[in-house]
Amino acid sequence: MQNIIVVLGTGGTIAGTSAVAGDNIGYTAAQIGVSQLVKAVPELASVPLECEQVAQVDSKDMGFAIWRTLALRAAHHLARAEVAGVVVTHGTDTLEETAYFLQRVLEPTKPLVMTAAMRPATSPQADGPQNLLDAVRVAGHLGVQGVVAVLNGQIHSAHDLRKTHTYRVDAFSSGDAGVMGVVAHGEVRISRARPKGVATGCELLPTDTTAWPRVEIVHSHAGADGAVVRLLCADGVRGLAIAATGNGTVHHHLESALLQAQSEGVKVLRSSRCLGGRVLAKADDVLPSADDLTPVKARIELLLELLRPPSA
Ligand code: SIN
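Structure tokens for the assembled complex are given below, as produced in the milestone run.
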């Protein structure tokens, strides 16, 4: 019977503790193990769950090695016939990056549900337990496929998710696309399908993550002169995601440096630093558009493109 939910722990504020119970800012992330997080939610006692601690980090420190391990462990569990879905507990700060990475690598047909919290586990108003309960419900829901994030009663697709607030519990948005659904009093309601793509597969991810191609994000801003691009190229950068202004516009000095980098083989992708909308391509564009991907997700696209063997 396909009914087991596997919960993979990676740390974050959801597993954070503070010496002062009411302190929702001065706490230490990634202190409590994933089994303890599950035990703190009485409603989960009757759900067939398995827990595995994949990492224990503040997600600002997320990196390629944890991404690779997480992708492999999630793929392993999702392939088990008895597993209905996988939940990943994570920090909110890079949640959208890990969600997008897992979505592009795995494109799972079962639910892979990311969840997190804005307040530590020791807070009297902790949001983690409810988010974890909701995430498990979504992971067991037949109508859900792919990587989604469940926070504050909302279900976001990995493609559209972004953190938009520094401290409120309603810190995430799906922008113009809107949420995929909601969890209300334990009931999962899906209102739209998720954007679908083609999985790159875990075999694309080399074991030695220190050798993964270097891809950086460069901002266009007043006075951007392109010096940072020249320095990065001299340092062996392979890809540059641009956080451009408005509808993908780039300071002309920065653009010259990027065109030079592109002519030398560096992959460039132009996204916008705006909080909403997409980069609408124009006939006279000289640098490729990342469409609706944010700069951090455009960076992941470039990373995966550079990891792909030339013949693929
Ligand atoms: C983190 O991202 O690990 C810390 C912040 C958070 O989870 O809200």
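The chain is about 25% helix and 20% strand. The pocket of succinic acid is lined by residues 11-13, 29, 58-60, 91-93, 116, 118 (CB under 6 Å). Further analysis is deferred to the final report.
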